[in-house]
Amino acid sequence: MNTPNTNMPLQLIDVTLEYPDGDGTIKALDAVNLSVGAGKMLSLIGPSGSGKSSLLAAAATLIRPTSGLVIIDGTTASDLNDAQLTALRREKIGIIFQQPNLLASLTAVEQLMISDHLRGKSLKPAKKHAMELLDIVGLADSAKKRPHQLSGGQRQRVNIARALMGEPKVLLVDEPTAALDNARSESIVRLLAQVTKEFSVATVMVTHDTEFISFTDSVAAMRDGVLGISELVGS
Ligand SMILES: Nc1ncnc2c1ncn2[C@@H]1O[C@H](COP(=O)(O)OP(=O)(O)OP(=O)(O)O)[C@@H](O)[C@H]1O
Fold first, then answer.
1. Pocket test for ligand 1, best of 18, 30, 50 (most atoms within 8 A of CB)
2. CATH code, residues 10-233
3. What is the Cα Rg of the chain in Å?
4. Which of 19, 55, 66 best tests ligand 1's pocket when mutated (most atoms within 8 Å of CB)?
5. Is 70 exceeded by the pLDDT of residue 98?
6. 216 lines ligand 1 (CB under 6 A)
7. Alpha carbon nearest to ligand 1 atom 5, residue
8. Could you tell me the residue ranges of all domains in the chain?
9. For residue 184, what are the contacts with CB-CB under 8 A and spacing of at least 6?
10. pTM for this prediction
11. CA distance 233 to 219
12. Distance from the alpha carbon of residue 25 to the mean position of ligand 1, in angstroms
C-alpha cells in the first residue's frame, strides 16, 4: 500500500530518518512501513537505541524524515509547511510522554481546560468536556486536586485525559509506565486500550513492559532502525 488511506489514521510509508554522525550518518529509521487503524493499539518494543523514539517523533511530525511519507488521517505531513504541521498536530495528534508534565499550580480539571481554551473554546464547555474526560479516566472525584496531591498513576491518567481533549485521531505514547509500579502500569495500559476503542484513535505505545502488550491489538519490534514486524491492524 502506498496511497493515503483515511481508514488508517496513522501511516508511515518507507520512512527513513538519518542523523549526522561524525563524517557520516546514522540511520535511526530504515524504510519503516507501519499502518495503524482507528480503534487499534500497537505496542512498539525494541532495545535501547533501536529507533523507537525516532519513530514516535516522526509519527508525531515533530521531526521530518529524510525520505518516505508520514500520513496522518489522510494528510501527507511532508506536503505541509511548519505552521500547517503545527495545526495538524494540534487537531489530530495526542502525545503522552513518560513523565506527565503537568503544571504544578493547576488542578486536574484546569490542566485539561487549558487545552480546550487554547483551541478557542469558552470556559463553560471546556469545563464540561474536561469533567467528562476525567470521569472516563476514573478521576471525577479528583478534579480539584493539584499534581502533588495525586499519585504517579493518577497524574498519568490526567495526562491521558489531557491528550484526549483535542479529540485526536492518533495517540502516541512514550513509555507511559516507566515511573509506575506493576499494578499501576497494568491499569494505565488497560486504560489506554480502553480509550483507543472508545475514541477510535490509532494508538502507538512504546514500552519496555512486554508483560502488558497482550492488552494491545498488535506488537511491532524495532532493531537497528528496522521494524521487525510490520503489521497492518484494523483493516
Ligand atoms: N538527535 C540525534 N542525533 C544523532 N543521533 C541520534 C539522535 N537521536 C537519536 N539518535 C540515534 O538514533 C538511533 C535511534 O535512537 P532512538 O532514541 O530513536 O532509539 P530508542 O529505541 O528510542 O532508544 P531508547 O529506548 O534508549 O529511548 C540511536 O543510534 C541514537 O543514538
1. 50
2. 3.40.50.300
3. 18
4. 19
5. yes
6. no
7. 19
8. 10-233
9. 151, 152, 153, 156, 177
10. 0.92
11. 10
12. 12
Ligand 1, atom 16, lies closest to the CA of 51
Residue nearest to atom 11 of ligand 1 (CA): 28
pLDDT digits (tens, 9 = 90+) for 61-83: 999 999 999 999 999 999 999 99
Inter-axis angle of helices 108-118 and 123-136, to 10 degrees? 130
pLDDT band at 208 (very low <50, low <70, confident <90, very high): confident
Ligand 1 pocket residue status of 19, Cβ below 6 Å: yes
Ligand 1 lined by 54 (C-beta under 6 Å): yes
What separation in Å is there between the alpha carbon of 222 and the centre of ligand 1?
12
Residue 13 CB coordination number (10 Å): 19
Which residues does 228 contact at the CB level (< 8 Å), separation at least 6? 46, 220, 221, 222
Calpha distance 110→91 (Å, rounded):
20
Average pLDDT, the chain: 91
Quick one: pLDDT at residue 5?
63
Mean pLDDT of 202-207: 96
pLDDT tens digit sequence for 141-171: 999 999 999 999 999 999 999 999 999 999 9
ipTM value for the complex: 0.95
User: What distance in Å separates the CA atoms of residue 63 and residue 51, rounded to the nearest whole number?
Assistant: 13
**pLDDT tens digit string along 167-186?**
999 999 999 988 888 888 99
